Amino acid sequence: MTPRFSVIALSGGDSSRLGALIDHVRIVGYGKAVEIIVCGEASPDSPDSSDSTGPAAYAAGRPGVRLATAAGGRAAKYNAGAALAFGDVVMFIEAGTRLPARAFDLAADCLTDGRAGGGAFGVEAACAGLAARLLVRARSVLSRLTGRPLGDQALFMRRDLLARLGGFRRDDELAELELTGAARRAGAVIRVLGERAGVPGERYDAPGGTRLAWRETLRVARGIVLRA
Fold this sequence. Notes:
Layout: E1 5-10, H1 15-28, E2 34-43, E3 46-50, H2 55-60, E4 65-70, H3 74-84, E5 89-93, H4 103-110, E6 116-125, H5 130-146, E7 156-158, H6 159-165, H7 175-185, E8 189-199, H8 202-205, H9 209-226
Parallel strand pairs: 1-2, 1-5, 2-4, 6-8
Antiparallel strand pairs: 2-3, 5-7, 6-7
Helix pairs in contact: 5-9
């Protein structure tokens, strides 16, 4: 039986970018049971409601898109989205990430192995600098070899496993590393697939972009060494 997917997206700071992500997920998931939940900031006046402006409010106005709100950082927002999810599998995605073709079929195939608790995709960036491209590719290979992805690799996980682990606990760049490490310690297999998600190349073409790519690769290595 094909699992149902819930895609949890952070709203970020750009309504047009978020709208493009929603359209992209719908195209990749055409004909499948894919729920989209956008995570936004709770209103400072009422923790149970969202700010009426901004990307999250814009997304909530799109047909079929649900809104989850939480005060605090990335972990709280992702956990709020997962708490609303009806899917058997929850996928976490950043606004700039683009899924590979057949992403949901690939994820479902990955999970046919009963030991597999989740997975993610490799990563590639259409950046101009050769050094940055090579570092992003190195990070992708390292993630695949170790089963340890970063946040731009569309981590997906069985919802029941996510609940047992207590969801995300960190707000920093090691959040996915910590969660997948906890899953592995619980006996689950996390697989990073060979198919690659696309991430914005401009962040690596900006000043300091090569250093950013190097830091991201080191984060994966650090997560392995520290068993984050």
